[in-house]
């Protein structure tokens, strides 16, 4: 059983008083992935290595912080479930409530990293740094990107200047807000891009440089309290395309969806058949949010519909799940999309 293993990189009397205390929560992904050769960069085993091995691989982190590690789960990020999100969010809040923890790093798979990052951005109740990092190349690959990304994440998590900026994501020496970062490439090491106000900053010569502020509200500024939530409402995403049928909306409703995100072809545009599906779902009390499959841009307001602002479908799903834990009022839900 690899869950909740706690390892310290130093025994306690070697912990340095003057250094901040950073906890690394490991969830799996390619950063913990292993292949059969140094040139294997696809088809490797995701989430294979434990947190101890990740920490041992980057002894330089000990100069930055006293490091403790915990294994939350060991999965490919496509297997991160709502239950895991809740477990992770609750653990982060529990740790940050302690005076002995100054910051948190989360290692994660890249495929759904933006979903977990945005979830935490909405539910963490602290202004201490929470930083997600990942890798595009497995730990066994030549020029693996994981170790330096992990080092940079610990650097950010232990830095005063990272406080109060919401949940951060770092890969490739860049610092991004969880709100704006997204994966844009299947395999390249520069897969992550930050849209809207771009990156918050960069890490240069071992120092974070912040240039932009986060305008959207986050962490302590949201009403979402997961401490007592056992299950998140089911929200599904339905793609829009030429000739798309209505039955997927019916299937979602019949299978218990409380919310549906439409990954619409353009600016929240719906085909006649999609409108039929959306109306069917809305008549059953299901909340429908129009997002876009385009990848960038804001969905403009539409009379009678909730729109996702600039949140892509997978992030809109995260916000709608949380919104439905506090309200069923479409106008209030829209106000969350306008603010967060
Ligand atoms: N680069 C990665 O981490 C991809 C992997 N499939 C994951 O998301 O867990």
Automatic annotation (TrEMBL):
<dbReference type="Pfam" id="PF17763">
    <property type="entry name" value="Asparaginase_C"/>
</dbReference>
<feature type="domain" description="L-asparaginase N-terminal">
    <location>
        <begin position="21"/>
        <end position="213"/>
    </location>
</feature>
<dbReference type="InterPro" id="IPR037152">
    <property type="entry name" value="L-asparaginase_N_sf"/>
</dbReference>
<comment type="similarity">
    <text>Belongs to the asparaginase 1 family.</text>
</comment>
<feature type="domain" description="Asparaginase/glutaminase C-terminal">
    <location>
        <begin position="234"/>
        <end position="337"/>
    </location>
</feature>
<dbReference type="InterPro" id="IPR004550">
    <property type="entry name" value="AsnASE_II"/>
</dbReference>
<dbReference type="InterPro" id="IPR027475">
    <property type="entry name" value="Asparaginase/glutaminase_AS2"/>
</dbReference>
<dbReference type="GO" id="GO:0004067">
    <property type="term" value="F:asparaginase activity"/>
</dbReference>
<feature type="active site" description="O-isoaspartyl threonine intermediate">
    <location>
        <position position="30"/>
    </location>
</feature>
<dbReference type="GO" id="GO:0006528">
    <property type="term" value="P:asparagine metabolic process"/>
</dbReference>
<dbReference type="InterPro" id="IPR020827">
    <property type="entry name" value="Asparaginase/glutaminase_AS1"/>
</dbReference>
<keyword id="KW-0732">Signal</keyword>
<feature type="active site">
    <location>
        <position position="110"/>
    </location>
</feature>
<feature type="active site">
    <location>
        <position position="30"/>
    </location>
</feature>
<feature type="binding site">
    <location>
        <begin position="110"/>
        <end position="111"/>
    </location>
    <ligand>
        <name>substrate</name>
    </ligand>
</feature>
<dbReference type="InterPro" id="IPR006034">
    <property type="entry name" value="Asparaginase/glutaminase-like"/>
</dbReference>
<dbReference type="InterPro" id="IPR036152">
    <property type="entry name" value="Asp/glu_Ase-like_sf"/>
</dbReference>
<protein>
    <recommendedName>
        <fullName>asparaginase</fullName>
        <ecNumber>3.5.1.1</ecNumber>
    </recommendedName>
</protein>
<dbReference type="InterPro" id="IPR027474">
    <property type="entry name" value="L-asparaginase_N"/>
</dbReference>
<feature type="binding site">
    <location>
        <position position="77"/>
    </location>
    <ligand>
        <name>substrate</name>
    </ligand>
</feature>
<dbReference type="Pfam" id="PF00710">
    <property type="entry name" value="Asparaginase"/>
</dbReference>
<keyword id="KW-0378">Hydrolase</keyword>
<dbReference type="InterPro" id="IPR027473">
    <property type="entry name" value="L-asparaginase_C"/>
</dbReference>
<dbReference type="InterPro" id="IPR040919">
    <property type="entry name" value="Asparaginase_C"/>
</dbReference>
């Amino acid at each position: 059983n690899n869950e909740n293993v706690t390892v310290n990189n130093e025994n306690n009397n070697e912990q340095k008083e003057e250094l901040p205390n950073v906890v690394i929560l490991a969830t799996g992904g390619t950063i913990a992935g292993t292949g059969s050769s140094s040139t294997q960069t696809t088809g490797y085993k995701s989430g294979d290595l434990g947190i101890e091995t990740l920490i041992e691989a980057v002894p330089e982190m000990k100069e930055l912080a006293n490091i403790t590690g915990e294994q939350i789960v060991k999965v490919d990020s496509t297997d991160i479930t709502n239950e895991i999100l809740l477990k992770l969010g609750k653990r982060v809040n529990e740790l940050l409530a302690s005076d002995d923890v100054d910051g948190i790093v989360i290692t994660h798979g890249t495929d759904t990293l933006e979903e977990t990052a945005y979830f935490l951005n909405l539910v963490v109740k602290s202004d201490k740094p929470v930083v997600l990092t990942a890798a595009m190349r497995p730990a066994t690959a030549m020029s693996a990107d994981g170790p330096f990304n992990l080092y940079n994440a610990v650097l950010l998590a232990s830095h005063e200047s990272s406080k109060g900026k919401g949940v951060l994501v770092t890969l490739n020496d860049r610092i991004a807000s969880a709100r704006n970062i997204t994966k844009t490439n299947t395999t390249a090491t520069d897969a992550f891009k930050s849209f809207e106000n771009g990156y918050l900053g960069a890490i240069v010569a071992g120092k974070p440089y912040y240039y932009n502020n986060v305008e959207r509200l986050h962490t302590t500024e949201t009403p979402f309290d997961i401490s007592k939530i056992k299950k998140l409402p089911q929200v599904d995403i339905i793609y829009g395309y030429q000739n798309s049928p209505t039955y997927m909306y019916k299937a979602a409703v019949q299978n218990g969806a409380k919310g549906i995100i439409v990954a619409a072809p353009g600016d929240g545009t719906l085909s006649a058949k999609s409108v039929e599906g959306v109306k069917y779902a809305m008549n059953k009390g299901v909340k429908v949010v129009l997002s876009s499959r385009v990848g960038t841009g804001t969905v403009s307001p539409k009379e009678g519909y909730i729109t996702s602002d600039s949140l892509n479908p997978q992030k809109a799903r995260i916000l709608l799940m949380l919104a439905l834990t506090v309200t069923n009022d479409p106008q209030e839900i829209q106000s969350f999309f306008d603010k967060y």
